[in-house]
Amino acid sequence: MEELVVIGNGMVGHRLIEALHDRDSAHRWHITVVGEEPRTAYDRVALSSYFDGATAQDLSLGQVSGPHVDVHVNERATRIDRAHRTVTTTTGRVLPYDRLVLATGSTPFVPPIPGHDLPGCHVYRTIEDLDAITASAHGARTGVVIGGGLLGLEAANALRLLGLRAHVVELAPHLMPAQIDEGAGSLLRNLITDLGVHVHTGTASTAVHAADHGRVSHLTLGEDTRLDADLVVFSVGIRPRDDLARTAGLKVGERGGIVIDDTCTTSDPRIHAIGEAANHQGTVYGLIAPGNAMAEVVADQLLDGQATFTGADTSTKLKLLGVDVASFGDAHGRTPGALDVVVNDAAGGRYAKLVLSDDATTLLGGVLVGDATAYATLRPLVGSPLPDDPLTLITPEGTTALGADALPDSAQICSCNAVTKGELTQAIDHGNHDVPALKACTKAGTSCGSCVPMLKQVLAQAGIEQSKALCEHFPQSRAELVQTIRATGTTTFSALIRAHGTGHGCDICKPTVASILASLGSGHILEGEQATLQDTNDRYLANMQRNGTYSVVPRIPGGEVTPDKLIVIGEVARDFNLYTKITGGQRIDLFGARLEQLPHIWRRLVDAGFESGHAYGKSLRTVKSCVGTTWCRYGVQDSVGLAIRLEERYRGLRSPHKLKSAVSGCARECAEARGKDFGVIATDQGWNLYVGGNGGFTPRHADLLAGDLDEETLIRYIDRFLMFYVRTADRLQRTAPWIESLDGGLDHLREVIVHDRLGIADELEAAMDEHVASYTDEWAAVLADEDKLARFVSFANAPTTPDPTISFTTTRDQPVPRTPVNLGMPAHRPQEATR
Amino acid sequence: MTTTTQTRPTTWIDACPTHRLHPEDGLAILLPDHTQIALFRTRDGHLYAVDNIDPYTGAAVISRGIVGDRAGEPTVASPMLKNVFSLRTGQSLDDTGVHLSTWPVRQGRTTVQIATRAKENTP
Known about the structure:
The structure holds 2 protein chains of 2 kinds.
Chain A: E1 2-7, H1 11-23, E2 29-34, H2 56-59, E3 69-72, E4 77-81, E5 86-89, E6 94-96, E7 99-102, E8 106-108, E9 121-123, H3 127-137, E10 142-146, H4 150-161, E11 165-169, H5 182-194, E12 198-200, E13 205-210, E14 216-221, E15 225-228, E16 231-234, E17 238-240, H6 243-247, E18 258-260, E19 271-273, E20 278-280, H7 288-302, E21 316-320, E22 323-329, E23 339-345, E24 350-356, E25 363-369, H8 375-378, H9 390-393, E26 412-414, E27 419-420, H10 421-429, H11 435-442, H12 452-461, H13 478-488, H14 493-500, H15 509-519, E28 543-544, E29 550-552, H16 563-575, E30 579-582, E31 588-593, H17 598-607, E32 620-625, H18 639-650, E33 659-664, E34 678-682, E35 687-691, E36 703-709, H19 711-728, H20 735-741, H21 745-753, H22 761-774, H23 778-783, H24 786-789, E37 808-811, E38 814-817, H25 831-834
Parallel strand pairs in A: 1-2, 1-7, 2-3, 7-19, 9-16, 10-11, 10-16, 11-12, 18-20, 32-33, 33-34
Antiparallel strand pairs in A: 4-5, 5-6, 8-17, 13-14, 14-15, 21-22, 22-25, 23-24, 24-25, 26-27, 28-29, 29-31, 30-31, 34-35, 35-36, 37-38
Helix pairs in contact in A: 1-7, 13-15, 19-22
Chain B: H1 3-6, E1 12-17, E2 27-30, E3 36-41, E4 47-51, E5 66-70, E6 73-77, E7 84-86, E8 105-107, E9 111-115
Antiparallel strand pairs in B: 1-9, 2-3, 3-4, 5-6, 6-7, 8-9
């Protein structure tokens, strides 16, 4: 085995070991990684989300592990001995190498102005920097970011999220001078000023001053302007970390950066350099995409491949303080003779510029601010003939009609991972016929995700029909059936299938239609024909267990229960010999009830003030809570009160899949709200609403939809969110994949819910009000109706004879099913049990 | 079924009053020998009777399954693990080696009646 040493465990170093580990199936390389940070690689691009609830764990890129990979964190390489081919580290370790990769990244440049190193001055690059900023922000009121580039604006957002008044000071005449032009810069300035960030452009920061306590108190701008500042973040640029290479005698660029050729090899053929530390033809790239491309090239070279790096696309699309900013190709129009086409809509908050060749036929680049939806289509068109009138292309709807058809095979669809349309078409030919398969095969769409709508279009163009048919009986998707049922006022399954389907239905379409009918308010789910549509658990308003008995879960809103009611649950469990277990949703599950016992159990519970907990339904389960201000000395809001209000509002709402929720009374998040479909976390000012979280097979944290809401606004947003989900999601699609499937994802959802972009908010709220008004307890309704009660018998011809196959044994003092059942395996009928 | 059931004389028992059996809404019936039957009426009026015990799990729950069709074949899906069986033949439509016994069933004057012996073409 040959020895590979990688110095640096940032994003690009991580990408290298991941790529090599994936491809080195012959185990040719043993990889040793040395990183100076106290943790393994994390997503530095998403750093500001750390102030928005993400944890270091969320940001982590995961660890490449295996017998042939050793990763050492908290350990810095101090010397490269090229003659003996070794690397020495701070722990005294000497690592021999056959090949060495320098992925040392960069350091933030701090201008040497007076006071730049005072307490309260920071840089913005690592999680430790963020922790220091957080500590420093305690008790501070005003924060100033020096540098109005991409990272500077991210830092300004971070200060805002920390509750500080944020200023940005930029030397150039406009913001983000590296990516965008002056017109775009001034619109961006207006948009972020509206968000409460103070912008000073064309302004030099000349000194930082301290107060008597020694900490930063103010800045001098220009000659003598004073700007108060309790905290300063420098973000004026980066410098490649090439000191190790320099000392080892490797060639470095005039303005820094380890010089590499097209194979990413330095002046020593055994040493490569990648990412922000590298200088390729005089350019040091400060973006992730070129770094990833270099990592891929080196992985390929290490396995004797021929890949080369010949420069990179520096196109970027990002959201800064909620404002879309995109820049692609020759954004500044530096090509001789280049022509600009500009739409500058200051009133509408949109700026768009296309840069065209001198004959106005070829797209060279562009800038988009305020609305960057055209980016996914326009960026791949760079270098290609324009498919339409340039002004049409930059009107709001101009590119949506255009799509993947207009693109040549060489067009790059995913710029993060350099995947072309041709490569996608090839992957489709090899049988990758949906978006998840394409993602897995090509990595397209796995980084920033902005190209996912294009992946769908490429699939459609290749003739792959994404079948939406619910099952063999209905060619429509669930969302289309919702539309049909609402438009036609259909109230029964048999009428629906007669008019819009074929055959008699099945265990897929019947429960789906039952759920839609229920969420549109069609009365009790066991009324008449509706009973025959219900899925296993809904059909008897309880959860079927492996031996055919049921479990019963009364609702305990917010997990709050009186001792008297708790005693009733205990007595019921004792009297009916039920196994009892506390659930993860802060309630109590009673197992082992026979079908004919259910109404008797419900009677006792309903008489004591309980109602159905809908544990059996694809509907709201529980709203979990911590004790909040009621008891907790850290609580900032009444989380139990809100949880009960939410649970009582949304109980019984039938949805495409189960819905879980939680409310935490402070940022410590004891209720685990971010693991829920909709989670609420208290802030000093109100409530933050998170959506799209779940546990289960693919656990996922919920994302922030809106922050610092008062209680009434919060409820309106949740009303809208849930009704929109109920109406548009697929069958058994939980909120996370539903949000991912929306064109525009979370941003689109926010537009619909918060800004009412579709103009349906009132209607969604009205539908929820109607649900709330028509809610009745499903158990009590059965107890009051002889026809429905007649369903709850063991045998039609022997209604009170217990099923003879059911028997129990005792484990840990509780009843459990006697026969171990072979789940999923065909078993012979147990003869003795039936006799 | 085993030969012991086949040697019994064919007799009919009243399973339930006709009005109790709603379309596509199964009922569990207990035979005198404690065999459990799932009884169904489809929307077109046909009567079917199959084993009530799900062969995959041993639980007596087939009568609580969803009735429908697959390419025209009348079916019931076990509520336990959603295995689908033909109501006509009892055959699993996903797993050739697995089937339910089927039972003769007829419409009496005011009741639906089931034979106490399984059909001979089913094991």
